[in-house]
Amino acid sequence: MRGPVTTNNTALMQSLAVAGVGLLYPLEPLIADELARGSLRIVLEPYAPAVPGLFLYFPSRAQVSPALKAFVDVARGRAIPRISSA
Predict the structure, then answer these.
(1) CA–CA separation, 34 vs 26, rounded Å?
(2) Where would I find the LysR substrate-binding domain in this sequence (predicted)?
């Protein structure tokens, strides 16, 4: 979906979605109050992940920086433990 606003500010995304400007892909607990009030509703539910987890989105065409690779490794639980010199 392409639109006039692209942001990584969660509060702004939420405000824009409540205002009807676009779609939001949040962690559901962060919008629980809006869902309960009816100011937001879940759409495209068949495309939503059915299991809880950590999801990381980054450009696949770009070269992955060492810092991002390290973060992904830690997030996946694959980080190599540091060897202590003590």
Answers:
(1) 12
(2) 3-77
